[in-house]
Design goal:
Number of strands: 11
CATH superfamily: paralog of FGE (formylglycine-generating enzyme)
Largest sheet: 5 strands, antiparallel
Number of helices: 5
CATH class: Alpha Beta
Radius of gyration: 18 Å
Strand order of the largest sheet: 1-2-3-6-11
Helix content: 10-25%
Order of helices and strands: EEEEEEHHHHEEEEEH
Strand content: 5-15%
CATH architecture: Alpha-Beta Complex
Distance between the termini: 27 Å
Length: 327
Amino acid sequence: MKASALRPGRVIPYTAARLSCRRHRQLWPGRALVLLSLAAIALSACTRSAPRSSSSASPSITTITTSSGVEMVLLPGGDLMMVSDAGGDESPRHKVHIDPFLIDKYEVTQRQFADLEIPDPSHFKDPDRPVEQIRWSDAILYCNARSESEGLEPCYDEETFACDFQASGYRLPTEAEWEYAARAGTRTAYFFGDSSDRLTSFACFKANAKQRTDRVGHKRPNPWGLCDMLGNVSEWCHDVYAADYYQRSPVDNPRGPEKGPKRVLRGGSWKSSAEACRVAARLGKVAGFTDACFTGDMLGCRAVRRLTDEQQQKIAGPVAGSSASKP
């Protein structure tokens, strides 16, 4: 990573008054680079009944803005219990370990495609709505273009679609990383509890969507400050989809099966029922590599990237779950 890519800024406490995900930041035209701002977030306790958590205390979460103007959240590594009572492809329950990683605070927007001069295939045109109608291959090409725009090493081979997980650039989250980020330490059906009664506050889905996507960040974030993890657009993950994968998933940083015709989608969309927006809900869809008529105005993405221990410490000090974590 270039030294200028991560510059600390002011520290901003994360209080109840900042729970809304509506963005009050400058929108940068073209492909101009911007200075990074850093906000160290200390999550405050919620006044409503808290969902069951896998740890007794919330971790310190750090938000940055990259040199290309994208807000990302640095998540500490840790253990994730992938739990569900639905059975089928969501079983069996199993524990995995996830290393620290950066993840986009918002779903990738049409503005971000425009900034990289990538054609926008979206049905619902609006710079601040999520890009949709994208194939899995479109999503990884975006990740590579974003990496190159910041002088980072692209993760994907654009001929074979193989991923170099040690590269410094952006990629799609693994299915386990996605669920780790979405759960934010909880074990309930939704990150706010087992009932879907409050889903309308956190997600754009079938019951409140008005037959289209919403602008990103207009719903409340999850406990780790990530917006639209449920609803709006279903998000492509890196993994090949297999209904029985959980029966043979490794413990450390699972990355899915090696081969298969489908890729994983997570989070549900504006067309989804409340049930389909559960954190554990899985969907497999043909990636559409060669389908000229591919459509899906509910298919989008968000990106992640790895950091070395040294880079993590420059941003927020030793990060839990890494080899440099505090005792």
